[in-house]
From TrEMBL:
InterPro entries: HAD-like_sf (IPR036412), HAD-SF_hydro_IIB (IPR006379), HAD_sf (IPR023214), OTSB-like (IPR044651), Trehalose_PPase (IPR003337)
PANTHER family recorded: TREHALOSE 6-PHOSPHATE PHOSPHATASE, TREHALOSE-PHOSPHATE PHOSPHATASE F-RELATED
Pathway note: Glycan biosynthesis; trehalose biosynthesis
GO biological process, alphabetically ordered: trehalose biosynthetic process
Functional description taken from the UniProt entry: Removes the phosphate from trehalose 6-phosphate to produce free trehalose.
E.C. numbers: 3.1.3.12
Entry keyword set: Hydrolase
GO molecular function list: trehalose-phosphatase activity
Entry protein name: Trehalose 6-phosphate phosphatase
Length: 389
């Protein structure tokens, strides 16, 4: 899709580079980004077989560095009446960072000017995007006002939630049936029925949702289910002595949360968590480790991620390769970078990174937190309603 606009919005050109060392932004924050052929609905997935081999020690292999890089400290503010006083230079660095990743709210007119005559498709992460990051992942509830904002936006734009959570769990959290869901980083997709040659894909199952509506379930890593379940049970057992560690079964991936590990001995504790995960997955060459915000995730070694999920859903909605379609992906985590990359490199649409701290990204725009995400969604609805008058 040619992203040059008649409205003069230079939205897909990179702003001038900024000096990251001057801002105190670590250069190693560029997230994991897999390679692989572009999605083709007629192409059967191949599962590469990694050669077995002993992994390096967690310190030597850089696991701890990656854990720290993916888990930046929260910004601390001191409130005095109506003023917020920043305790360090973080706010200055953030304002300079937004020169490269401008706010999607302050740039809203630019976005909508480009979106005229186009069909917007929304893709949303869940944790840290629609709900705040919380200490207990089982309590990451979205607010009623956020749910209302999502419900309203679905009236005007095809919308999908793409989460690292299991699909069932994120469906339960969101509680809306009008949109599409992709769990386990896109390895478990519930989408519309496609009437195309790809309907007979071996990883696609015709099913019905809770309302009896016919849907397609696409599960490219289905053969890994017994293996992931086995690893999940092993991780629960090996980490049960680490206070604050929590293992979550997200169906096609196993997540080890270390957010609540005692911060007083944070380095040793994080190292212990990393060593436990290392000791388990070293015997599973067909599984790999990825890093999120204070979480380690064990996933199948297949060429599938949130970027591939975006492509699959666009294909399912018959919206791929359409010049009048504008996909927008909003997410906060390293795994969302795969989707940002697809939209940027394919000149397809916009990635919006949700972050209150500076970090490298393939996104074009930024939002500070879920409250700004909600305002952005409300703004889209107001814009759509006013443009229909």
């Amino acid at each position: 899709m040619d992203m040059k606009s008649n409205h003069g919005a230079p939205v897909l050109t990179d702003p001038a580079p900024i000096n990251k060392s001057r801002l105190g932004i670590p250069s190693n924050l560029l997230p994991y980004s897999p390679t692989g052929a572009a999605f083709s609905p007629s192409l059967h997935l191949t599962i590469p077989r990694k050669k077995p081999g002993k992994l390096d020690d967690v310190r030597a292999s850089g696991w701890l560095d990656a854990m720290k890089a993916s888990s930046p400290p929260r910004k601390k503010l001191t409130k005095d009446f109506n003023f917020e006083v920043v305790s360090d230079d973080t706010d200055v660095a953030y304002r300079i960072w937004t020169l490269k990743y401008p706010s999607a709210l302050t740039s809203f007119e630019q976005i909508t000017n480009y979106a005229k005559e186009k069909r917007i498709v929304l893709f949303l992460d869940y944790d840290g995007t629609l709900s705040p990051i919380v200490d207990d992942p089982e309590c990451a509830f979205m607010s009623d006002s956020m749910r209302s904002a999502v419900r309203n936006v679905v009236k005007y734009f095809p919308t999908a939630i793409i989460s690292g959570r299991s699909r069932d769990k994120v469906c339960e959290f969101v509680g809306l049936t009008e949109l599409y869901y992709a769990g386990s980083h896109g390895m478990d997709i519930m989408g519309p029925v496609r009437h195309s040659v790809s309907d007979d894909h071996p990883n696609s199952i015709r099913s019905t949702d809770e309302q009896g509506k016919e849907v397609n379930l696409f599960q490219p890593a289905s053969e890994f289910l017994p293996m992931i379940d086995e690893v999940f049970r092993s991780l629960v057992e090996i980490t049960k002595g680490i206070k604050g560690a929590k293992v979550e079964n997200n169906k096609f991936c196993a997540s080890v949360h270390y957010r609540n590990v005692d911060e007083k001995v944070i380095v040793a504790s994080w190292a212990t968590v990393a060593q436990c995960v290392h000791d388990i997955i070293k015997d599973y060459p067909r599984l790999r480790l990825t890093h999120g915000r204070k979480v380690l995730e064990v996933r199948p070694v297949i060429k599938w991620d949130k970027g591939k999920a975006v492509e699959f859903l666009l294909e399912s909605l018959a919206l791929s390769n359409c010049g009048d379609v504008l996909p927008i992906y909003v997410g906060d985590d390293r795994t969302d970078e795969d989707a940002f990359k697809v939209l940027r490199e394919g000149n397809r649409g916009y990635g919006i990174l949700v972050s209150s701290v500076p970090k490298e990204s393939k996104a074009f725009y930024s939002l500070r937190d879920p409250s700004e995400v909600m305002e952005f969604l409300k703004s889209l609805v107001r814009w759509k309603e006013s443009s229909a008058l």
